[in-house]
TrEMBL record:
Source lineage: Bacteria, Bacillati, Bacillota, Bacilli, Bacillales
Organism: Paenibacillus macerans (Bacillus macerans)
One Pfam family matching this protein: NfeD
Segments traversing the membrane: 12-39, 45-63
The organism's place on the tree of life at top rank: Bacteria
Main location: membrane
Protein name in the entry: NfeD-like C-terminal domain-containing protein
Ranges for domain NfeD-like C-terminal: 82-137
A Gene Ontology term for the protein's cellular component: plasma membrane
Keyword terms: Membrane, Transmembrane, Transmembrane helix
InterPro entries (alphabetical): Membrane_assoc_protease, NA-bd_OB-fold, NfeD-like_C
Compartments, as annotated in UniProt: Membrane
Keyword Flavoprotein attached: no
Topology versus the membrane: Multi-pass membrane protein
């Protein structure tokens, strides 16, 4: 059973690396703890699940105030908040219900839009989630 927990931890770590939210990291660590418990007590399935859940929940609860304090500290800059309102260029077209690629400054982002937008069109960033921005066509103000 410990091998299954290790595989789950590895998969969670890979998904965490794609999202960069830290929530999946805590679940990954919980799965590692469950793997250790499974290695020590292979027949105690309930103990494995409870130990993993308690560790993941504890990390989530105790790191929330730390991350809030870090974000409130002087000098912290969240790149995402600076993106809102900026202009970008569509690198890969944005189709209805699908993501495209938009270049904003020197960075490329996965982007979605309420309407289809073609390649090389200028867009404005409306909002940003963890890795995806929402854009609209750039309208010149006269």
């Amino acid at each position: 059973m410990w091998a299954i927990w290790l595989i789950a931890a590895g998969a969670l770590l890979v998904f965490e690396m794609m999202t960069l939210t830290f929530y999946l990291l805590w679940l990954c660590i919980g799965a590692l703890v469950a793997a250790i418990v499974a290695w020590i007590a292979p027949e105690a399935y309930v103990l494995q699940v409870v130990a993993g859940c308690l560790v993941a929940l504890g990390l989530t609860i105790f790191t929330k105030p730390l991350s809030r304090k870090f974000r409130a500290s002087k000098g912290f800059k969240d790149v995402g908040t600076e993106l809102v309102g900026k202009q970008g260029i569509v690198v890969e077209p944005i189709e209805e219900g699908q993501y495209g690629i938009v270049k904003v400054g020197g960075d490329t982002w996965s982007a979605k839009s309420a309407v289809p937008i073609g390649r090389d069109e200028r867009v404005r960033v409306l909002k940003r989630s963890s890795t995806i921005i929402e854009v609209e066509r750039w309208e010149e103000i006269s």
